[in-house]
UniProtKB/TrEMBL annotation:
Name assigned to this protein: PRA1 family protein
Compartment(s): Membrane
Positions of transmembrane segments: 72-105, 125-149
Highest rank taxon of the organism: Eukaryota
Record has Methyltransferase as a keyword: no
Recorded family membership: Belongs to the PRA1 family.
Membrane topology: Multi-pass membrane protein
Record organism: Pachysolen tannophilus NRRL Y-2460
Keyword vocabulary terms for this entry: Membrane, Transmembrane, Transmembrane helix
InterPro entries (UniProt xref): Prenylated_rab_accept_PRA1
Pfam families: PRA1 (PF03208)
Length: 175
């Protein structure tokens, strides 16, 4: 069994590059925003209908998950933000861990000198884990994850099942 070595945290932070992560996410976010369907299309009451069969439900879900994927992702993100803002301890822990790891990475491998004590990277990461893990257990993240999965699944699959295909795509199926 492999033993825990605090030096693994410092090698992780040296390999983790925030700038490349930021550039990739910005370009991915921009492409997702361009794929967002307008609310008039997403909430079109005229296209809401009861599916005729289980096969119709399957076809609608398959089509709408692809067609409205960016809108469904936006719903998931809104629910995620809602769950974070209503669970103070989880929000505190996420902000604390992310800001601490970002601050430690800004040290560029140097020690943190507070005047009365000198702390290296592995000690700083151990301190973050020592504070962050108990707060994480208090905040019940597993219940939040299950709530997020169940509510987003009900909303997304429910919308995908009752929304009929747009009229423009109905003619694409006929060959």
């Amino acid at each position: 069994m492999a033993s825990f070595v605090p030096a693994q945290f410092s090698s992780f932070s040296s390999n983790f590059n925030f700038n490349s992560l930021r550039a990739d996410n910005i370009s991915n976010l921009q492409s997702r925003l361009h794929k967002l369907k307008p609310p008039q299309d997403f909430l079109d009451i005229k296209r809401i209908s009861r599916p005729r069969s289980a096969n119709d439900v399957q076809q609608r879900i398959a089509f709408n998950l692809n067609y409205f994927s960016s809108n469904y992702l936006l719903i998931l993100l809104v629910l995620l933000l809602y769950s974070l803002f209503t669970n103070f301890w989880l929000l505190f822990d996420v902000v604390f861990v992310i800001s601490s790891c970002y601050g430690i990475s800004k040290l560029n491998g140097n020690d943190l000198n507070l005047g009365f004590v000198r702390l290296n990277q592995s000690q700083l990461y151990t301190g973050v884990a020592f504070i962050g893990l108990p707060v994480l257990f208090i905040s019940s993240p597993i219940a939040t994850i299950f709530w997020l999965i169940s509510v987003s699944s009900i909303i997304v699959l429910g919308h995908a099942a009752i929304m009929d295909k747009p009229i423009e795509t109905a003619f694409n199926d006929v060959v």
